[in-house]
């Protein structure tokens, strides 16, 4: 009997309607290179196997690896026993076919995992993930609201975000204490704003949101003066959650220009 392990943040999806809806939304086509992250006990995996000649999956739990080997038809699935937070997904690419990632992600690692995947966005066609509803709201948030933050900016700089549907706790074993949502992330072929130095951009976004109650003048101290912000048309008394992607890019590019 396989029991969910708290240290892995496991909540196994079992609702057949939700599983069918995820696969229908994914709409795998012949030739797609599908990679499932965190297949768990294999409820979604078995449904994918019914629609695909072959696909890959990355799973850390050794007990689940043995279970999946025993229950998924031979030749359908290549299992990779690895920590998705450290895994090089780009190594799975074959013949320039970008990866289509899908999975019910462990909620305790979802944010660092998303940042890890962003670093490999050039290898990824799209991502369809089950996440905590609150995290999906942050991914899709527009400037000006409480959900808009560093995660919103960095994800939206790299991907188009589409919240698809919500999933109730009863669809999982054990039921999580939060609602879940399914989201589609599609890496941009070209970012929506021009950034001269992506490392600088990430540094600016991190600094701006370091303390949400503080103004840009305070959070950006040492990076850019209030006068320089004003010259860009950005009021230094504003807070980070009010800035658009374009304004974050303007701040970053100005710092790059001044430090050149």
From TrEMBL:
S-adenosyl-L-methionine: present as a keyword of the record? yes
What molecular function does GO assign, one term? RNA binding
Q: Which Pfam families match?
A: RrnaAD
Looking up PROSITE patterns in the UniProt record yields: RRNA_A_DIMETH, SAM_RNA_A_N6_MT
HAMAP family to which the protein is assigned, alphabetical: 16SrRNA_methyltr_A
Compartments where found: Cytoplasm
Q: What does this protein do?
A: Specifically dimethylates two adjacent adenosines (A1518 and A1519) in the loop of a conserved hairpin near the 3'-end of 16S rRNA in the 30S particle. May play a critical role in biogenesis of 30S subunits.
**Name of protein:** Ribosomal RNA small subunit methyltransferase A
Q: What class of enzyme is it?
A: transferase
Q: What is its EC number?
A: 2.1.1.182
Q: Which UniProt keywords apply?
A: Cytoplasm, Methyltransferase, RNA-binding, rRNA processing, S-adenosyl-L-methionine, Transferase
Which intervals hold domain Ribosomal RNA adenine methylase transferase N-terminal? 18-189
């Amino acid at each position: 009997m396989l029991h969910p392990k708290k240290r892995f943040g496991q909540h196994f999806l079992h609702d057949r309607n939700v599983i069918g809806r995820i696969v229908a939304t994914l709409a795998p086509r012949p030739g797609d290179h599908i990679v499932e992250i965190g297949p768990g006990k294999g409820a979604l995996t078995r449904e994918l196997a019914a629609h695909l000649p072959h696909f890959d999956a990355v799973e850390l739990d050794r007990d689940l690896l043995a279970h999946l080997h025993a229950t998924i038809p031979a030749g359908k699935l290549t299992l990779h026993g690895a920590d998705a937070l450290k895994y090089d997904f780009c190594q799975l690419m074959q013949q320039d076919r970008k990866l289509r990632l899908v999975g019910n992600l462990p909620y305790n690692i979802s944010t660092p995992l998303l940042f890890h995947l962003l670093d490999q966005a050039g290898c990824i066609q799209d991502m369809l993930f089950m996440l905590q509803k609150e995290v999906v709201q942050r991914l899709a948030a527009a400037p000006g609201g409480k959900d808009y933050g560093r995660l919103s900016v960095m994800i939206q700089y790299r991907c188009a975000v589409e919240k698809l549907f919500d999933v109730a706790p009863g669809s999982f074993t054990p039921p999580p204490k939060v609602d879940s949502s399914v989201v589609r992330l599609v890496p941009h072929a070209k970012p929506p704003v021009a950034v001269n130095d992506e490392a600088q951009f990430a540094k600016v976004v991190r600094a701006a949101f370091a303390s949400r109650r503080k103004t840009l003048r305070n959070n950006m101290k040492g990076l850019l003066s209030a006068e320089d912000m004003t010259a860009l048309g950005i009021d230094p008394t504003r807070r980070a959650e009010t800035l658009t992607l374009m304004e974050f890019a303007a701040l970053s590019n100005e710092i790059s220009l001044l430090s050149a």
